[in-house]
């Protein structure tokens, strides 16, 4: 395991802002910590990177205990917790050389270029950092964080302030990093972004971990999932009557040709057969994909926090 968090708690005065949280991050996995603002995500991350003391619980990074082998465990982490700071009048290369010198582990020149290539900054390394876009700075931050070959990269709200193009690129190289064997722990309250970024995630609410599952489990539609199924036919009025009379599912009309039927995924085939059997041609059946946001709402009965963007 790249990371094992076992029952960590943070109590400030009488309040538990993180309460008995346990989870694991596997090798090469992008793992998300999701939750509304104030849920406790940053506090969990600060305890993992040892910027904050735990009240109780244990943390192991790549098998090394933060309590028993503090230096060894921290060497396994690369993190961007606050905005990364750079020397703006130095080039990207000079900034990386500076970090290379300060690194706890020796870093070769070859490794520096390998990392620059991984975050797609090799061509921009000779430019001064003050000319970098926010996305490029973010990538330089990641390069700096992984120079010493940590097994776990930790990013707190990494796409804050990035534009959609920047976010898409960021996702791309996080995937590449994970492919190269680095595990990633990323926190965010932006569900649509996390859906595209993470392999697995935990939902944190009021300091407690309430659920863990894979993104594939979340977004795969199951036979009994019930929602609006769209059917495109020749004539929505007659299609509506057919479905309502013969199958008794609620139907609403979208326009002249399309209807929405409220039914389970497994019913789509029967509805299709009934429509065709009654002489209604069916041109399209669309079952809306399940999103992380749907799942989040099922599990928490809360607003998603997307409005806080
Ligand atoms: N030093 C502190 N003293 C008292 N309360 C704190 C302290 N640090 C954090 N908290 C409280 O603990 C809760 C969790 O905060 P935290 O920053 O971990 O949440 P978060 O999930 O990261 O939220 P966000 O998405 O807004 O960053 C909040 O209610 C916060 O006010």
From TrEMBL:
PROSITE patterns assigned: ABC_TRANSPORTER_1, ABC_TRANSPORTER_2
Molecular function terms, GO-annotated: ATP binding; ATP hydrolysis activity
Residue ranges occupied by any ABC transporter domain in the UniProt entry: 3-231
Entry keywords, A to Z: ATP-binding, Nucleotide-binding, Transport
Superkingdom to which the source organism belongs: Bacteria
InterPro entries linked to this entry: AAA+_ATPase, ABC_transporter-like_ATP-bd, ABC_transporter-like_CS, P-loop_NTPase
Family in the record: Belongs to the ABC transporter superfamily.
Protein name: ABC transporter-like protein
């Amino acid at each position: 395991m790249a990371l094992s968090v076992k029952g960590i708690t943070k109590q400030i005065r009488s309040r538990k802002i993180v309460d008995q949280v346990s989870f694991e991050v596997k090798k090469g996995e992008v793992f998300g910590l999701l939750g509304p603002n104030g849920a406790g995500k940053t506090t969990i991350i600060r305890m993992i990177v040892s910027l904050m003391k735990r009240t109780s619980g244990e943390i192991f990074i790549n098998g090394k205990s933060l309590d028993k082998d503090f230096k060894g465990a921290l060497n396994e982490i690369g993190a961007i917790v606050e905005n990364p700071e750079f020397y703006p009048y130095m080039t990207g290369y000079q900034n990386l050389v500076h970090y290379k010198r300060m690194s706890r582990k020796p870093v070769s020149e070859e490794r520096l270029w390998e990392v620059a290539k991984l975050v797609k900054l090799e061509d921009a390394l000779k430019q001064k950092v003050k000319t970098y876009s926010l996305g490029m700075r973010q990538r330089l931050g990641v390069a700096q964080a992984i120079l010493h070959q940590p097994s776990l990269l930790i990013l707190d709200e990494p796409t804050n302030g990035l534009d959609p193009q920047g976010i898409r690129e960021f996702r791309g190289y996080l995937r590449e990093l994970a492919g190269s064997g680095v595990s990633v722990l990323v926190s965010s309250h932006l569900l649509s972004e996390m859906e595209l970024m993470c392999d697995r995630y935990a939902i944190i609410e009021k300091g407690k971990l309430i659920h863990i599952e894979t993104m594939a489990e979340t977004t795969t539609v199951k036979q009994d999932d019930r929602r609006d199924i769209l059917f495109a036919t020749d004539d929505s009025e007659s299609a509506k009557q057919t479905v309502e009379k013969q199958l008794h599912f609620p139907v609403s009309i979208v326009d002249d040709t399309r209807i929405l039927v409220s039914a389970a995924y497994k019913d789509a085939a029967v509805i299709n057969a009934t429509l065709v059997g009654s002489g209604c041609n069916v041109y399209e059946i669309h079952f809306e994909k399940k999103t992380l946001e749907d799942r989040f709402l099922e599990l928490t009965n809360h607003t998603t926090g997307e409005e806080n963007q």
